[in-house]
Amino acid sequence: MNADSTITILVSRSRALFRAAIWGVPAVLLGVACVSIYGRLHFIPSGISNRFVDYAFAIAAAPLPLMGLWTALKSIRWFMLFAWGGAIEIVAGPTSIDFRLGSFGRKVFQVADLDIRYPFELIDEDEGSFESFLPEEQQRATLLPRIIHPNIKSPLQRAILQFAVGDEAQVARALRPMIERWQAARGPTLASIPSTRDTRR
Fold it and tell me: Which helix H or strand E contains 107, and what residues bound it?
């Protein structure tokens, strides 16, 4: 891998379409419910209707249109990603990760700002899961490391897996040369240094 090389992970349009449909179903159901409920309210006093009762029903049902709008916007956003005319991809370079996500926007993260560690490197911090005990080589071959940016709440590897074509093992194989390069450039992590704490317990 030369100094200027990059690795490109394509964004899955089929997965975007599937998620658009998943969010679209509740949006439609909530829309039908809103039409059914609000279509019966007249807000005009009559022999069989009290406008105060109608207002009470309208207020009680207010969360439905809000939830319907929220799910509809989610669905539209995923459909826009599916139909996006330009390139949608995640580009991993020597110094940055570039998320080019169409309707979800574009974000670039500098590798120097990232904390990149596999599960076996997190055991001493009590953050390891059962995956921490898998062989080190198996982790590197089939798992993405935890990738933390100080200004982002959710780990970046989750975003990669959410959008990328393929399963985690496929993405891990594709990104492994770059991940190794990132970790080599940053030097050994504290978690990768053998622990000196007393283990006689």
Answer: strand 106-110
Residue entry with tokens 């089939």: 142
Please provide the average confidence, as pLDDT, over all residues in the chain: 85
Residues 71, 28 contacting (CB under 8 angstroms): no
What is the Cβ-side half-sphere exposure of residue 89, based on CA atoms within 13 angstroms? 11
Query: Taken in order 58, 60, 66, 68, is the CA torsion positive or negative?
Result: negative
Neighbours of 125 (CB within 10 A): 10
Strands (E), the chain: 7-10, 89-92, 96-100, 106-110, 115-117, 146-148
Task: Give 93-116 pLDDT, tens digit per residue.
Answer: 999 999 999 999 999 999 999 999
Structure tokens at 149: 């940016």
| 59, containing H or E segment | helix 51-60
pLDDT at 72 over 90: yes
The pTM (predicted TM-score) of the whole model is 0.79
